[in-house]
Design goal:
Blueprint (H helix, E strand, L loop, with lengths): L12 H15 L6 H35 L3 H27 L17 H13 L2 H4 L1 H6 L1
Helix pairs in contact: 1-4, 2-3
Length: 142
């Protein structure tokens, strides 16, 4: 599946990491103004990624459905789940866009805030989930 697995609490792990990273950026915007732009960039990129992943997943569902034709009901349920996950992610990102950075603290994770090293790890992990990073070995081979 292109969309990450669900974790307890109804949020997927990617969304939890996104919250942690945005929280870190928000806490440090006073010392580094460029983090405001980084925060906006990440939100826009994640929104775009969600749209692209959803379109790709639904297209693959349709391709499987037209080739097999026997698992139609299962595919419809799976497509519904994909759409539901995508909408919950977009809803989260929209709420972040509407929230001023200074008010973002109300949306913090329940756990402790992350430090610089943790933020770097989160960025690397989220970047590794992107399609280009996942297909990098293919590009090198070719």
């Amino acid at each position: 599946s292109l969309l990450p697995r669900q974790v307890s609490g109804g949020e997927d792990e990617i969304q939890q990491l996104q919250k942690a990273l945005l929280d870190y950026l928000d806490e440090n915007t006073e010392t580094d103004a460029s983090l405001v732009f980084s925060r906006k960039f990440y939100i826009a990129q994640w929104f775009r990624d969600t749209t692209m992943e959803t379109e790709k997943a639904i297209k693959s569902q349709k391709d499987e459905d037209s080739s097999e034709g026997t698992h139609h009901v299962k595919d419809v349920e799976t497509t519904g789940q994909i759409m539901h996950r995508a909408e919950s992610r977009k809803k989260f990102l929209r709420s972040i866009i509407k929230t001023a950075p200074s008010q973002f603290s109300t949306l913090k994770m329940n756990s402790d805030t992350v430090d610089y090293e943790d933020a770097c790890l989160i960025v690397r992990y989220l970047a590794s989930m992107r399609p280009f990073a996942q297909s990098f070995d293919i590009y090198l081979t070719q």
